[in-house]
Amino acid sequence: MVTIADIARATRHSTATVDRVLNNRPGVREDTLQAILKAAALNPLRMPTFDNFARHYPGYWTGL
Predict the structure, then answer these.
(1) Domain count of the fold of the chain
(2) Is 45 helix (H, G, I), strand (E, B) or coil?
């Protein structure tokens, strides 16, 4: 599993550009779009989960 930062590093584009592509936002050249989509298809993204968040930030939800 990889992160957006990993895809950005591998394709030599910014994390903002990778985010635009993965969230289908405008403003990205076609060759950049294809390179990022190819890299993302080869490497599934690691998505944050509640369990992962809770493990790294114990006590965050305390008092709710």
Answers:
(1) 1
(2) strand
Phi, psi angles (nearest 5°) of residue 61: -90, 0
Q: Which domain holds residue 39?
A: 4-49
φ, ψ (nearest 5 deg) of residue 57: -130, 65
Asked whether the beta carbons of 10 and 39 are under 8 A apart, the reply is yes
The pLDDT tens digits for 3-46 are 889 899 999 999 999 999 989 999 999 999 999 999 888 877 66
Rounded to two decimals, what is the model's pTM?
0.68
Residue 30 lies in a domain: yes
Distance from C-alpha of 53 to C-alpha of 48, rounded to nearest angstrom: 7
In a domain, 54, yes or no: no
